[in-house]
Automatic annotation (TrEMBL):
Chief location: nucleus
InterPro entries: HRDC-like_sf (IPR010997), RNA_pol_Rpb4/RPC9_core (IPR006590), Rpb4/RPC9 (IPR005574), Rpb4/RPC9_sf (IPR038324), RPC9 (IPR038846)
Coiled coil: none
Any GO MF annotation of the entry: nucleotide binding
UniProt-recorded name of the protein: DNA-directed RNA polymerase III subunit RPC9
Domain RNA polymerase Rpb4/RPC9 core stretches: 25-144
GO CC entries: RNA polymerase III complex
Subcellular location: Nucleus
GO biological process, one term: transcription initiation at RNA polymerase III promoter
Keywords of this entry: DNA-directed RNA polymerase, Nucleus, Transcription
Family: Belongs to the eukaryotic RPC9 RNA polymerase subunit family.
The organism of origin for this protein: Arabidopsis lyrata subsp. lyrata
Length: 161
């Protein structure tokens, strides 16, 4: 049985093993990856929305993951924005898993943020400060303008019929 080892550069220090140097590659299961990092990896393997994607060496399941991730905040994030956000979150004393979820979900309101952070009041976490950081450093979600344009086109096509 042929197993492929996933070799990825993890951008922030706390997701790495204690023995690795900054910038070193880590092996699979060495830490959690953000959705951005998974999307970046799939892009590097040739995944795209292109109709000729069937000739890329990507498994069908990987395309399903790719198709999902391009519709999420991961598609608008950059390595720089994710790294900067993770570094600044250290000041808020939130857990690594909470930072990962905030990056992946990009909450835009307190209602979306509170389920991500476990007992924020008991830990005296500045949730408003985290939301400001999200707004300042993480790009907006893929615009709904695209979806509105598609809906308008569908409406126009129905009217022309």
């Amino acid at each position: 049985m042929n197993h492929q080892v996933l070799d990825v550069d993890v951008p922030f220090e706390f997701f790495r093993s204690k023995n690795s140097d900054f910038g070193a590659s880590v092996k699979a299961n060495a830490g959690a990856l953000t959705n951005f990092e998974v999307l970046d990896f799939l892009n590097s393997r040739g995944a795209s929305k292109d109709t000729t994607r069937v000739i890329a060496p990507i498994a069908r399941s990987e395309y399903k993951v790719y198709d999902y991730l391009v519709e999420t905040a991961a598609s608008t994030q950059t390595r720089e924005s994710v790294t900067k956000f993770a570094d600044k979150c250290k000041d808020f004393k939130v857990a690594k898993a909470e930072i990962l979820n905030i990056i992946n979900l990009r909450p835009s309101s307190i209602v979306e943020l509170l389920p991500i952070i476990e007992t924020p009041d008991d830990r005296e976490i500045d949730t408003d400060g985290i939301l400001e950081l999200v707004k300042d450093l993480l790009p907006l979600l893929p615009t709904t303008e695209t979806h509105k344009d598609n809906d308008k086109e569908e409406t126009d096509n129905v009217e022309q019929s």
